[in-house]
């Protein structure tokens, strides 16, 4: 009797797994140019990124996701440097899009009403990507090997934990890091906004003693008015960095602060954003090595690593809709947190972007960044034009 009922049930379960499976393709064709006042030649790249993915149906809460990513230079337009890979080093300015083919994601997932568990290579993006993100702007995005757990106590309270054994960075496999990272993130929605507390305990798994521990709290809220809608937020984090042991050990502490206010009226959003990546007496700058860094501190990527003097970024931006697309204009004013006689003014930057969709599935976009140097760096101009689709 048991065999009579279990066999059809088993077959039906696997039929559901296969019938519920889905597959996708994600393509991004992008031209990027870099013109900066250094000793290197100007850079340009035309690259195509292709992602092919598959997700199974669910059986007893379990499913499997796999995705392959490939990035290629198109029509021989590859006059640029990718430093960590050794490509054209010392010839051109940097465009961080190496040619590569690799497994982007491959994980087993278990999910029920409250709990989601993932084991394997996966995308992780927490909050606004300031501390943990996928760097999806680059053609070879960032993923992580490890295990993660998300538990929704109810509609208001959510907890995330991740243990990472490898950081799959944007420079292809040769530049990936083994790690022993612990990520904690808990959020609570209230009537006045969303509160988030986090702790990110990072360690590269090599032969050196190293630790980068960050603890913080974040708040975001909004308020609708008759003519103006408001959005606002604040964040504070403290960080300790330890490297080495004994007499050669270094130990630094620095703080992070963010405050922002936005007003939307007549279809236009005006926003002011203050961000501080603090310094420890001019010897160390607050670090966010797992962040989607391109999203912050200007699109020309001058401050992917925080200067030892720290960084203050005051940003004014306007955004809205035009001709079926979205536009954005931003101005950044940069200065040092711990100013010295030699380093105080860190320059300024203007960013412009327009994004639109055609035929509902194809995104067309153009954006431009122009950085004017201060006491450090050099002037730089970058232009991007791209078309992307997913099906």
Protein model, in words:
There is one protein chain. This protein has 391 residues and is mainly beta. It has one helix spanning 2-19; strands at residues 22-36, 43-55, 62-79, 100-111, 115-122, 143-152, 157-168, 177-190, 193-202, 210-224, 229-243, 250-265, 268-277, 311-322, 325-335, 345-358, 362-372, 380-390. The protein has one helix and 18 strands. The chain has an 18-stranded antiparallel barrel. The longest helix has 18 residues, at 2-19.
What is this structure's SSE topology?
Layout (H helix, E strand, L loop, with lengths): L1 H18 L2 E15 L6 E13 L6 E18 L20 E12 L3 E8 L20 E10 L4 E12 L8 E14 L2 E10 L7 E15 L4 E15 L6 E16 L2 E10 L33 E12 L2 E11 L9 E14 L3 E11 L7 E11 L1
List its salient traits:
1 helix, 391 residues, mainly beta, disordered N terminus, 5% helix
Straight-line N-to-C gap = 46 Å
Radius of gyration equals 23 Å
Total helical elements? 1
**Helicity range of the residues?**
under 10%
Secondary-structure content class: mainly beta
Order of helices and strands: HEEEEEEEEEEEEEEEEEE
Low confidence ranges: 1-5
Q: How would a textbook summarize the main sheet?
A: 18 strands, antiparallel, barrel
> How many β-strands, per DSSP?
18
**Principal-axis shape:** globular
Q: What value does the average pLDDT take?
A: 95
Approximately what portion of the residues adopt beta-strand conformation? over 45%
Quick recap:
With 391 residues, the protein is mostly beta strands. The protein has one helix and 18 strands. It has an 18-stranded antiparallel barrel.
